[in-house]
Design a protein that fits this description.
This protein is mainly alpha-helical. The protein is 79% helix and 0% strand.
Length: 141
């Protein structure tokens, strides 16, 4: 089992990197790079990294088939590329503080949208149903 200190240190470092993205990206855009360029570099770098890891870790006789690779590429383009492009394009138009506040309230918007669109009841347990609630209940307390 991972010690609480190591777990909290890892979570802190991830939060630090995540928080630094706003200011760093805003310093880069639009003077040195546009949002599409940043997203292209991130995706190309991640693709190269994971392709290398796949070759080193996966046994050669059990390499994923072509159909799975095509599905993974489609999911990456729609789930990662579109998401990241929307994020960086929005950040390019606003300040890092406003972007971080808008991103922070997104789980609230999801709960409210599910209440309106899906007629879900908004109850106190649904407040802990957000992703960080599950993580916090399982690992931190």
């Amino acid at each position: 089992m991972v010690s609480k200190f190591r777990l909290h240190t890892a979570l802190f470092l991830v939060s630090l990197i995540y928080a630094g993205t706003y200011s760093l990206a805003k310093d880069i855009m639009p003077r040195y790079m546009l949002p599409l360029g940043i997203v292209t570099l991130r995706i190309a770098g991640a693709a190269l990294f994971f392709a290398l890891v796949k070759r080193l870790v996966a046994p050669h006789d059990k390499i994923i088939g072509r159909a799975d690779n095509l599905r993974a590429i489609a999911c990456g383009l729609l789930g990662i590329a579109f998401n990241q492009l929307s994020f960086f394009a929005g950040l390019n138009l606003t300040t890092p503080i406003n972007a971080s506040l808008l991103q922070t309230i997104s789980p609230i918007v999801v709960v409210l949208a599910s209440a309106v669109l899906l007629k879900d009841k908004v109850t106190p347990p649904s407040w802990w149903a957000w992703p960080w609630g599950r993580l916090a209940r399982r690992h931190l307390f």
